[in-house]
Amino acid sequence: MKKSIKNIIALGLSTLLLAGVFAGCQNSDTKKTTDAEKSNVVLRIGAQPYPLYSSIYVAKKLGYLDEELKKVGATYEWTDFKSGPLVNEAVAAGSEDIGFMADMPAILAKSSGQDIEIIGNVAYGEKALAVLVGADSNITNPSQLKGKKVAYVKGSYAQHLLALVLKNAGLTFDDIESVNLAAGDMPAALEGKQIDAAVLWEQFVSKLTTEGRAKVLVDGTGIKKGNMVTYSTKEFAEKNPQVIEAYIKAGQRASEYIKTNPKEAAEAIAGDFGVTPELMVKIFNNLTFTQELTKDDIQEIKTVEKYILDQKIISNEVNMDEFINTKFLEEAGITK
User: Fold this and answer.
1) Of 255, 336, 250, whose CA–CA distance to 293 is shortest?
2) Is residue 324 located within the same domain as residue 230?
3) Which positions fall inside the SsuA/THI5-like domain (predicted)?
C-alpha cells in the first residue's frame, strides 16, 4: 500500500513538473510574441525615384526590406519625393524617419538644425553627374560657359560639381548666369535653347545622351565622387538600432544583386524611373552601389561640407565626425 502511495505521489509530481515545463514553454512563446508585437516599429522611408538610389528600390521590389525588417519585428512605409530638399522638409516635419539623398542636401539639412545622422552610403559614381549641353551646341570646353545660362538645382550636389568645374576653368558663379530649375524641367529648356547648359544626374544623363538630345561637356570623373547617403533622425536610430541595421542589410543585399544580376535588377525597377531595362543596365555602369562608407567616402563628404561653408551657403559648421555614424554599418557587418 505504501508502495502504491509512493508511486501515486511520484506520478503526481512528475505530472506537475511536466505541466510546469509545458506552461513555461507556453509563457516563453507568448512572451516572445508579445515582445515582437511591441517592437513592431514602422520605419518611414522618404525616397526619391532616381536610379542613383537603385539599390533601395531593388530591396523594396525583391522583398529584401520586408524580409530583413520582419526579422526584427518591423515594417516600413514608403513615400516618393521629387527632390532631396522635399525629403528634408518631410523629415524636419516629423513625417519620415530616414531619407536618402546626395551628400550636399544631407549636409544642408544637418546645418539647418535637424537632429540627423548619416547611417550609410547608397551609391557613388563620377559619371552619374554631368554638365550637359545641347546636341548641336558649339560649347566644347567648360571655359566657354562664361556668360552662358547654366541650369542646376540650387542646394543639390549638382551645384557642387558645377562649382568645381568652373574653378578648374578659371571661372566662378559670377561668370555665368545661374538658372535654378527643377531637374525634370531642364531637358525641355535645353532643347528649347532657353538655357545653354544643365547640370544633371542619372537617369537624365544616359537618357538624353542615348537619345541624341544632349551631349556631355564634362562629368564628375576625377572631380567629384558623388556620394548618395542615407540619413536617419538620431531619435529613431537610438531607439531602434536593429531596425536601422536591418535596413542596411537589405540595401547591401540589393547592392550585391545589382552587381551579379544587372539585367534582372534592371527589369525589376526600370519602370520606377521611366526608362527601359536596357537603359537601366547602362545607368548601372555609371554607379557603384554599396552601403559601406570608406575613409575615402567620409573624406569626400567632409570636403563638400567645407565647400558649402566656405561659400557661405551655410553659416553653421557641421561636426562631421558626429554627423557620420558608422556604428550601424559595423553592427550590420558591412564595415569592420
Assistant:
1) 336
2) yes
3) 55-265
Q: Which residues contact 145 (CB under 8 A, 6 or more apart)?
A: 131, 139, 165, 166, 169, 171, 175, 176, 196, 197
Nearest C-alpha neighbor of 99 from the set 48, 60, 142: 48
Percentage of the chain with pLDDT > 90? 84
Q: How many domains does one find in the chain?
A: 2
**Residue 78 in this model has a pLDDT that exceeds 70:** yes
Q: State the pLDDT confidence band at 6, using cuts at 50, 70 and 90.
A: very low
Cα separation, 109 vs 89, whole angstroms: 9
Question: What is d(CA 91, CA 85) in angstroms, rounded to the nearest whole number?
Answer: 10
Based on the fold, state whether residues 148 and 281 are members of the same structural domain: no
140: domain CATH number is 3.40.190.10
332-to-68, 252, 267, 279, 314 alpha-carbon distances in Å: 11, 10, 28, 32, 33
Pairing of strands 149-152, 227-233: unpaired
Domain of residue 212: give its range: 127-219
Q: What is the pLDDT of residues 60-71, one digit of tens each?
A: 999 999 999 999
Main-chain dihedrals φ then ψ at residue 228, nearest 5 degrees: -100, 135
224-273 tens-digit pLDDT: 999 999 999 999 999 999 999 999 999 999 999 999 999 999 999 999 99
Q: What is the DSSP letter of 136?
A: T
In this prediction, residue 1 carries a pLDDT of 44
Burial group, residue 258, by CB count within 10 angstroms (0-12, 13-18, 19+): buried
pLDDT for 85 equals: 83
Closest-CA residue to 303 (of 240, 209, 235, 227): 227
Q: Label the pairing between strands 177-180 and 116-124.
A: unpaired
In which band, very low, low, confident or very high, does the pLDDT at 39 lie, cut at 50, 70 and 90?
Answer: low
**If you average pLDDT over residues 314-321, what whole number do you get?**
93
The answer to whether residue 265 is domain-embedded is yes
Q: Is 259 left (phi over 0), alpha (psi -120 to 50) or beta?
A: alpha
For 156, phi then psi, to 5°, come to -95, 170
Q: Which of 195, 219, 243 is the last residue of a domain?
A: 219
